[in-house]
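Handout, section B. The chain below has 286 residues.
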Amino acid sequence: MLLMRSAWVRWRLHPLRRPWKTKKTRFRFPWQPDPWHRDSTAYHDGMSGSFLVDFDQPIPLFPLVGVALFPQTVQPLHVFETRYRQMIEDCMAHTVDGDLSKSGPIALAVLEKGLVGADSVGSPPLKPIVCIGRILKNHLLPDGRRNILVHGVCRALIRSVDEPDDDRLYRVGDLRPIESPLAEAPSPVVRQALKRLLHGDQLNRMHAAEAVREWVDQEEVPIETLIEMASFVLVKDERLRYQLLQEPDPSERARIVYGELHHIDRLVARCDLQGWREWPKGLSWN
């Protein structure tokens, strides 16, 4: 656990750049043309710089069924419930002339045991680790709903929760970071190991791995950012995703991601050995 003298912690935010991107040019990844796409991880100009989190102040808790955000990744959200519309409105209260850098943080939390439907109504229990994010984009619809883009900033532990009251319709939490913003990065050999896997015969055919392959080839992308992106895009198992979210050690996260990609690589290789006559009931393993 990180012990701090000050409740203010500044987190460095690393943008993902392309070789042809200039300071005056905005772009979207060609495989993510829609900025509100559910799996969008596109570069946004607001991702650079740093962001201050005041851990002395309660932070709004936005619960979701699974892990939807890691630090250095971007997640679009459609906000339609009245309580969460109020949450975003409160976060935007300190912005001036659309400057979202002054918006308040929100914490994307995970429902305990993946509660859905009726079990998620009200104030269902939450898992203890969250990802604190900042709002990059905010689009208010005529009926009061919002489309927002949230950029992950840091991992945090929920120490206590304040339930809704007469004025505030949503929960807020007393949070503390679980990792240092100056944590030591994984070894450079991790990048080389990931390169070999992602450019190998098996994973090279995975469309989902296309973005991560391009990131791993860009030496200016920090390895810890690369691991966060790979966790977000390629790790689909919810148990592993939460394990990655709650792990404070960047090197251990790198080990988990590499192990999962190596597992996928072996599964694809085994499927390649199966001829079409051996497919179950004539169906492709794909």
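Note. The two ends are 43 Å apart (CA to CA). Compare this with the example in section A.
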